[in-house]
Amino acid sequence: MKTILVTGGTGFIGNCFCKLLLAERKDWKVLNVDVCTYAANPHTIDEELKNPNYVFYKKDIRDRKAMEEIFEKEHPDVVVNFAAESHVDRSISDPTIFLETNIIGTSVLMDCCRKYGIERYHQVSTDEVYGDLPLDRPDLFFHEDTPLHTSSPYSTSKASADLLVLAYYRTYGLPVTISRCSNNYGPYQFPEKLIPLMISKASKDEKLPVYGEGLNVRDWLYVEDHCRGILAVIEKGRVGEVYNLGGHNERNNLYIVKRILSEMGKPESLISHVPDRHGHDQRYAIDPHKANVELNWDPVTTFEVGIKKTIEWYLSDYGKHWLEECVASEQEWLKKNYENRK
Ligand code: NAD
Ligand code: DAU
After folding, report:
1. What atom of ligand 2 comes closest to residue 277's alpha carbon?
2. What burial letters (b/e) apply to 68-103, b meaning 16+ CB within 10 Å?
3. What is the pLDDT of residues 169-214, one digit of tens each?
């Protein structure tokens, strides 16, 4: 039986990854190490906790002693690091915790891997490490060798972690891989991010705050496709390599928001243009050629199908309840981020 330690497994993507493993790698023991920040609704893992192959450790990846105890006890074969502070706007408001979790936390995990031995350490990274592309150059894409050129404290912390991961490969021979993915969407995403925030607000006929003109472009990928990509990197990817994962699904923010309103039968008059994000990245666009060719990975969920499934989930009885629990816990943030944008 293989033991895989997933950090941040109560969060949006980490939980989807655990679900995928429990469903399709039935002989793997799945450990979820998550400290449960504001971004983790504890009910997200209700189903997984019933599975005998799943163990949850409510621990902080920055806590070296706690991490060493888990490694000592479990001796994981594979570590996949999803745990992070993940919201760009929060990093602009308060960068410190981003440096602590995203950089120091990563180094603690890799030190444990060195100490106890590991088959693979996988770092879940982001396309934001490449910075942005201009809106008037649709011919340009992010490749794995595109220089790192970050904009926000969040993306800078993720790029720093990536460099540290590659340094542990070169210096200590730690068997690492990195995946850099574009914007994810799907069920269980915390409603601070564009798509669930807009669904949540539209469901209550509240104004939908679009930053600036809403022309910034993101490359949207359904979360399960991302998780299948990560699994492919772990099982088939070459050690020391970076793999870009993206959906070839570029849309501007206004398109996304209008699409949500139309799917929900709500009027476009709910859209409210508000002052822009500082340093707002213009366009992200991944070239996923390397993952296609080397790993035979391709996204399977079209945006049309994925967005319908996502909205249906948030409007289901379960999804509504889950969403309300999150919204209740983020009142302070909503006030801080949006009050001075009116
Ligand atoms: P999320 O904010 O939904 O979840 C992060 C999880 O990490 C939470 O459960 C949180 O409790 C946990 N966590 C935070 N600090 C921790 C700590 N110190 N110790 C243990 N656990 C801690 O984030 P997400 O959207 O699921 O993103 C997961 C990873 O994927 C992140 O590394 C992010 O940078 C990366 N990523 C996200 C996207 C996206 O579109 N959401 C795209 C590409 C890459
Ligand atoms: O590209 C991958 C990244 O995608 C991940 O690494 C990050 O963890 C994830 O948060 C996401 O970052 P973005 O900044 O692109 O996502 P966000 O959902 O915050 O914003 C998407 C776009 O929508 C962006 O152009 C800003 C805009 N926006 C966002 C919010 C929250 C609005 O116009 N209004 C809003 O209220």
Report:
1. 26
2. eebbeebebbbbbbbbbbbbbbbbbeebeebbebbb
3. 999 999 999 999 999 999 999 999 999 999 999 999 999 999 999 9
User: Which residue out of 5, 6, 7, 13 has the highest number of ligand 1 atoms within 8 Å of its CB and is therefore the one to mutate?
Assistant: 13
27-57: pLDDT as tens digits: 999 999 999 999 999 999 999 999 999 999 9
CA of residue 70 to ligand 1 center, whole Å: 20
154 classed as catalytic: yes
Domains in the chain with CATH codes? 2-188+219-249+280-306 (3.40.50.720)
Q: Which of 34, 85, 128, 162 is catalytic?
A: 128
| Reported pTM | 0.98
Tokens at residue 8, please? 């941040």
Three-state DSSP class for residue 257: helix
